[in-house]
Structures are given as C-alpha cells and as structure tokens.
Amino acid sequence: MTSPAMTAHIRIRELTFDYGGDRPAVDALSFDIAKGEFIGLLGPSGCGKSTTLRMFAGLLAPTSGQIVINGEDIVARPPWERNMGLVFQSYALFPHMTVAQNVAFGLRLRKVGKAETASRVAEALRAVRLDNFGSRRPAELSGGQQQRVAIARAIVIQPEILLLDEPLSNLDARLRDEMRFEIRDIQTRTGITTLFVTHDQQEALTMCDRIAVMNGGRLEQIGTPVAVYDQAATPFVANFIGRANSVPATLSHLSGAPQLRLEGQWLPAPRAEDLPVGVTDGTRVSAMVRPHAIRLAKPDGGLTARVVRRVFVGSVVEVELQLADNHTLIAELRPDSDGAALAEPGAEVAISWRPTDMRIFAA
Question: What tens digit of pLDDT does each residue of 4-30 get?
Fold first, then answer.
C-alpha cells in the first residue's frame, strides 16, 4: 500500500476477475499508485498480472472491484475513453506504414490536425531517440527500434497512464538489458504513471519504483525492489525474487534475545519484532538466507557444512554446501575472498550469516 505521504493517482480496490474456474484469475487485488510512479506487476505465468493489465486497458470487464483514477471509478468506461497508452508484447506495428505513420495512428483516430500531429510525432520520436527514422518501415528496424516505435505510438497521444505488457520478452538477452534502461529513461523524462507487466525478476528489480508480486491471482507483497528482496513478506516472494536458501529450524528465547536452533547449534535470530506473528518458544520455522549473505571460515566449533561443489561463474564463486541433515545451501562468494579459498570440494567449513540477513517464516 502507499505511504501516508504519497498521494494516490490510482487506487485499485478489491479488483477481481473470474474466468469461472476453481479460483479467480485476479482475486481481490488492492493497492495504490502515485502519479509518475513506475509500478511492476511481477509473477509467474498464470498469476493474473496480464489479466490485471487488460482490466486497466478496458479489454476485460472486472467481475467486481474498482479502478479509481483521480477519484473516479473507470471500470465502466470503454477503452477509448481511458486516456491510456498500451504497448503490446508483439509491438503490433503496421508493416505497410512508415514509422511516422505508425506513431501518428492514434492521433488520426482522434482527428488531431495535421500540423499538431506532425509536431507531436516529431516530439515522440525525439523522446525515444528515433528522430531520423520517420520515413522507414518497421521491417527496416531492429527489434529494439521497433519497440521504441511502439512506445512512441503509445506516448504520442499524451496518455495519463502507460501500460507495458512484457515489452522486452521478444528481444535477445543483450538488447533486453539495453532496453531496460531505455524504457526507464523514457518514462522518467515523460513522467507518465506506468504499469509494467513482467515475469522477469531482473527487469522488475532494475526498472521499477515499486514491485507488486502476484501469485495465484493474489497480491503477495508490494514494495520497493530493495524491500521485496531484503524483507520478503512470504516464502513465495523470498523464493521468487532472486535466490534463497531455506532450512527448517526452531525458535526459542523469545522473551529475551531470540535464538534459532539449527543443526544442534544455537544461532542469533532476527529481532523479535521481525519474527512471524504468533510464534512462541519452540516454534518450528523456515529460516531463509540469501546466497550472498553466507560466510565461510575454518571450522571453529559452530555450524559447519561440507563443500559439495565449487563453480566459478564470473563475478562470484558459487559453492554448494551440505549440512549434516543433508539440507543443501548455496553460497555466493567473491573469487578473491578468504571463504572462496577454503571452498574446496570435500572440505568442512564453518558457515555463518548476520541475524539481519535472515528471514523467518512459519513452517
């Protein structure tokens, strides 16, 4: 949800869409979006993110709920009265038209005059850095250039809201990396409130102001990229955003400094206020820690593990560790670190992490 200081441009309230299956495709979705925010809808296939975008665009009518923009519920408005720009996954450019004609298409439908159309098309092409490409056909453009034409066509109508439906999925990996920053730069310069659908965690983490993580039609968590990564609210978010190690453990000493019993060792646990609601002494939990937070040292009587394998993957060394109960952990270490030097297959090492790097979930 929004912070008290944030003025909502869009309020989504109990938004639901039911195809008639076992459960709704979108189930009582509620959150706010500030003006000019870049919000990512992130989740696996079938989680309801594209259905949500289509309800925004007016291509689907909600079963129930509200989409309130500037204080007015728009769910009964037809698509052409919503002042939204939509960029499709396939770009949907007209092959027989030039770039300029493609960009001008929405203005022609709105019967904008020729002089204003020419001015706004030129401005939109400048915004996406395609000033000199107006006379070309889509077939003469690269994938990234075609995508920018699709964005120019969406923003030329001066929409209040921009909707992006997995716009990077048809690009190769290198171009996808470049276009992440291109799209964010365009959105920042235009200041358009943007809703961006993706299943790619890296896209969401690098592009969005906040990420709404969806699963099974429901909202699992919404927050900044740092918050959803470092303070995952649910086990699903912890495992879907980045990589996570999870091991069963027992919580105790909750009236003082909480401790975690793992592999017969008592380890410092996160602060009591960061623990799940309702836990008591002896509660079985799942302890989650990110691979980059794990430290390796020489055995010192604390928690130990056996190194199963070590793989160099460029900027980090990935180490697979096996605990005595056969649970495995993955650690990511700098190649020049002391821990990496100890991580020889078959070696026994001490493992540790800071309590603040751990998330605890009810088992």
Answer: 446 789 999 999 999 887 889 999 999
58 alpha-carbon distance from chain centroid:
23
CA dihedral 4, 5, 8, 12 (to 10 degrees): -30
Nearest to 26 by CA among 43, 45, 51: 51
Question: CA-CA distance, 262 to 279, in Å (whole number)?
Answer: 17
> At a CB cut-off of 8 Å and minimum separation 6, what does 249 contact?
260, 261, 262, 284, 285, 286, 287
Contact 349, 298 (CB under 8 A): yes
Strands 193-198 and 161-165: parallel
C-alpha to C-alpha distance for 50 and 40, rounded to whole angstroms? 11
Residue from 101, 83, 102, 84 nearest 93 by CA: 102
Would you give the DSSP letter of residue 291?
G
> What domains are defined for the chain?
8-239 (3.40.50.300), 243-362 (2.40.50.140)
**DSSP H helical ranges for the chain:** 49-57, 99-109, 114-127, 143-155, 173-190, 201-207, 225-230, 235-240, 338-342
DSSP string spanning 9-30?
A: EEEEEEEEE--SSSS-SEEEEE
> Tell me: the pLDDT tens digits for 154-206?
889 889 999 999 888 777 777 788 888 888 988 998 899 999 999 999 999 99
Q: Backbone dihedral region of 302: left (phi > 0), alpha (psi from -120 to 50 degrees) or beta? A: beta
